[in-house]
Each structure stands twice: as structure tokens, then as C-alpha cells.
């Protein structure tokens, strides 16, 4: 019975290695595509948020 328990541990290690190598391959392939994606600063600013005096006072009260 103890031999089966050690086999399960080995199988789990092999599964983990296989998944880890697959994840590494996906990450290496997608890295150039992510680098070419436009930055958030390049996106047009939304007109929904305006920092008013009231908001600045609130933010200032948080840092105290």
C-alpha cells in the first residue's frame, strides 16, 4: 500500500512539471503581444471623473 502512495506523489510532481512548462510556453509566446499593447496612458481620458476641491480634501484626510 505504501508503494501506491509514493506513486501518487510522483504523478503529482510530473503533472505539476507538465503544467508549469505549458504555462511557461504560453507566457513566452504572449509576452511580445503584451509589450505591443497600448498603454493605459495612451487611452483617451474619461470625462466622468473630476477631482474637485471636495475630493482633494477627502484624499488629504485619508493620509493623516
TrEMBL record:
<dbReference type="InterPro" id="IPR014177">
    <property type="entry name" value="Formate_DH_TAT-contain"/>
</dbReference>
<dbReference type="InterPro" id="IPR006311">
    <property type="entry name" value="TAT_signal"/>
</dbReference>
<keyword id="KW-0732">Signal</keyword>
<feature type="signal peptide">
    <location>
        <begin position="1"/>
        <end position="35"/>
    </location>
</feature>
<protein>
    <submittedName>
        <fullName>Formate dehydrogenase</fullName>
    </submittedName>
</protein>
